[in-house]
Write a structure and sequence with these properties.
By secondary structure, the chain is mainly alpha-helical. The chain has one domain: AhpD-like. 66% of the residues lie in helices and 0% in strands. It contains eight helices and no strands. α3 packs across α8 and α6 packs antiparallel against α7. It is globular and about 45 Å long.
Length: 146
């Protein structure tokens, strides 16, 4: 991998704004586990090694199990995730893959069975933010920590 720009150096105001937006997530009703599942799954879809590495480590530190992280790619085929988590993962996939069909009515209706509109909005923002970070990390070829 070649040397690419460091957005934080070239565009510090934009970088700071991204960090502030990410900081907002700490004030939401989403649990740490829910947040990390969203971040890992979106990063897997986008192929962002930097973010997968960071968020799997964060998930493990906050008590997530290796088994659940290993099975995240196949969440539909296991009952290791709760129905609420499965809805959040569906939201994550549909928004991350927005060009396919976006957030479907079926998934949105399921989400309303489990979550308030406020929490649904927070989940959408969490997906949007990690997708933005994935695009920054991939575009600038941020290295995975050794």
């Amino acid at each position: 991998m070649g040397n690419r720009i460091k957005i934080q150096d070239v565009q510090p105001a934009a970088w700071k704004a991204m960090y502030n937006l990410s900081g907002y997530l700490g004030s939401t009703q989403l649990t740490k586990s829910q947040m990390e599942l969203i971040k890992i799954r979106a990063s897997q879809i986008n192929g962002c090694a930097f973010c997968i590495d960071m968020h799997t480590k964060d998930a493990l530190k906050s008590g997530e199990t290796g088994q659940r992280i290993f099975l995240l790619n196949a969440w539909r085929e296991t009952d290791i995730f709760s129905e609420e988590e499965k809805v959040l993962l569906a939201i994550t996939e549909e928004i991350t893959l927005i060009s396919q069909h976006g957030l479907t009515d079926a998934t949105y209706k399921k989400a309303k069975n489990f979550f308030s509109e406020e929490l649904i909005a927070q989940a959408i923002m969490a997906v949007v933010i990690i997708n933005a970070w994935n695009r920054i990390a991939i575009s600038t070829q941020m290295p995975v920590a050794g």
